[in-house]
Every structure is written in structure tokens, then in C-alpha cells.
């Protein structure tokens, strides 16, 4: 399985820079202007100026938001420096440092240091770290599965992912729910009923990859009784949302069934052309 880090969960107080701006309209007066004539670079520059002023006044949230803006713009070295400055005061900065050191963003990859920061989040008793715990546990599970920064252990990875998935809680790590579906369908021996359960939970919480996976499980009767109608419904919905694997499988199915009009409709998607080659006649 190829795994990626869990993105920073939304802060229940300020979910984004724009949300922060909306709560501070006296400071962000520029938001009342017509911004059509601003380029993206202009808006970023303006935001940085305003955040700098808030930092000068001692606004601790502005410190993190500046680092996050750097991160989202791909200015990883600047983001790393900003997060390092406030890591003892801001759990979100600690979380982002864990991701950056593990994945080597703005610095040489240091998986042990990344794991250390994620463990701080998982073990923290502070209420302000609560919304980060599930995502941090997913990332720790990834480290154990990959054997980076810790001794490789599928058992510990599974334990952490189950904690992160929190019985299908939509406010927990939906990524962990989806990964559990993939994990149980690829491990030896396979546990396809568990795989189907976790893909169902993740799909119900909006996960696109699991929606496509459910389509294939229904189609081939893996972990559930074979149901072509349910399979096609899952695959169509996933394909319409941009799942390239679902698009490719639908093209193949329609081609074999000689539903050429539908086959052509899905094959016109740029993504499906990358995933599917027509069978040779």
C-alpha cells in the first residue's frame, strides 16, 4: 500500500485563514473591497502584511496562520521556520512539523523526528490537541506500517488506525477508515468482510477511494454478496466525482457488455484515458 500523510484537521475555532478574517473584519478591511482585480499573489501578499501586523500586536493565532499560509503556498522552508518558533505553544504547529519532517517538506526527511512530534500530539492531555489526535494516530500507524522512524509492525499500525477510525466516527480520521478497508483486503490472510465494513464506513463519510473500492467489492462479491446493480451505482457515483479507477472499470465493463455509447462517454474523461487501454480486437 502506498500511503500519504493525513492533512491538518480543521481547527474548531478557526478553520481557515478566510474564517479568521471573517471573525476579524476590523482588521481585514480589504475583504470588503472588490477583489476581482487582485491576483492570487496580491492576495497572499496582502494577507501576509495583515498577519504581520497581528503578530506585532501579539496575536498568537496569527503566528500559526502565517506558517500555514506558507505551507499551503508550498513555501516549506519558511513554514518550517515559523512552526519551529511556536511549536511549544501551538499544537497545530507541532502536528505540521511532524508531517514535514516525516515527508521531508522544507527539510531533509527525518522520520524519527516526525514520529516524535506525532506522538506528542497523541499523548497530549491538552484539550486544544483533541481535534488532532485521530489524524496524528493515523500518521503514526503509517510510520509503523512503513517501518520508518519506528520498528515495522503491522499489528501496531492496525491498532493505531482502529483508534484513528473511531468506529466510523465522521469527525475522526476518515482516511484511517479507508486505509483499514485497503489493509484488510491486501493483508495475508485477507479479511474481506472487515475490508467491506471499513470501506462502507469511509464511503458513508465521503471518501472517494472507498466508494470506488466498494463498487469493485460488490462487482466481484468480495466481503459481500455479488450485486452488479450496487456495484455499478458505486462506480458511477465515484466516477462522476473523479475517481479514475472507477472510470476505468466502468469503461471496461461497458465495453465487454457492448454498451458502446456509455463506454465512449466515460472514456472521453482525460483521467480514464490514463487508466484504461481498449482491448485489442
TrEMBL record:
Keywords on record: Cytoplasm, Repeat, TPR repeat
Pfam families: Sel1
Entry-linked InterPro entries: LRP2-binding, Sel1-like, TPR-like_helical_dom_sf, TPR_rpt
Cell compartment(s), UniProt: Cytoplasm
GO cellular component: cytoplasm
Gene3D superfamilies linked to this entry: Tetratricopeptide repeat domain
TPR repeats: 60-93
Reported function: May act as an adapter that regulates LRP2 function.
Protein name: LRP2-binding protein
The organism of origin for this protein: Odocoileus virginianus
Amino acid at each position: 500500500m502506498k500511503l500519504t500523510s493525513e492533512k491538518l484537521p480543521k481547527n474548531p475555532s478557526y478553520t481557515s485563514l478566510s474564517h479568521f478574517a471573517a471573525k476579524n473584519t476590523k482588521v481585514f478591511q480589504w475583504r470588503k473591497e472588490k477583489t476581482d482585480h487582485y491576483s492570487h499573489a496580491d492576495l497572499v501578499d496582502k494577507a501576509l502584511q495583515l498577519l504581520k501586523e497581528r503578530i506585532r500586536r501579539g496575536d498568537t493565532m496569527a503566528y500559526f496562520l502565517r506558517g500555514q499560509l506558507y505551507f499551503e503556498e508550498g513555501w516549506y522552508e519558511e513554514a518550517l521556520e515559523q512552526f519551529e518558533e511556536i511549536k511549544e505553544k501551538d499544537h497545530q504547529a507541532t502536528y505540521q512539523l511532524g508531517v514535514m519532517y516525516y515527508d521531508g517538506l522544507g527539510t531533509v526527511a527525518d522520520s524519527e523526528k516526525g514520529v516524535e512530534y506525532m506522538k506528542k500530539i497523541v499523548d497530549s492531555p491538552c484539550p486544544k490537541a483533541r481535534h488532532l489526535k485521530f489524524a496524528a494516530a493515523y500518521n503514526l500507524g503509517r510510520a509503523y506500517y512503513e517501518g520508518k522512524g519506528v520498528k515495522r509492525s503491522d499489528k501496531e499500525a492496525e491498532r493505531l488506525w482502529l483508534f484513528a477510525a473511531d468506529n466510523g466516527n465522521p469527525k475522526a480520521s476518515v482516511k484511517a477508515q479507508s486505509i483499514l478497508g485497503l489493509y484488510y483486503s491486501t493483508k495475508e490472510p485477507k479479511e474481506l468482510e472487515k475490508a467491506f465494513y471499513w470501506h462502507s464506513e469511509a464511503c458513508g463519510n465521503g471518501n472517494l477511494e472507498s466508494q470506488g473500492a466498494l463498487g469493485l467489492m460488490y462487482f466481484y462479491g468480495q466481503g459481500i454478496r455479488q450485486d452488479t446493480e450496487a456495484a455499478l451505482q458505486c462506480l458511477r457515483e465515484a466516477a462522476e466525482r473523479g475517481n479514475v479507477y472507477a472510470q476505468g472499470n466502468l469503461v471496461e465493463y461497458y465495453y465487454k457488455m457492448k454498451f458502446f455509447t456509455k463506454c465512449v462517454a466515460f472514456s472521453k474523461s482525460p483521467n480514464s484515458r490514463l487508466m484504461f487501454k481498449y482491448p485489442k480486437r
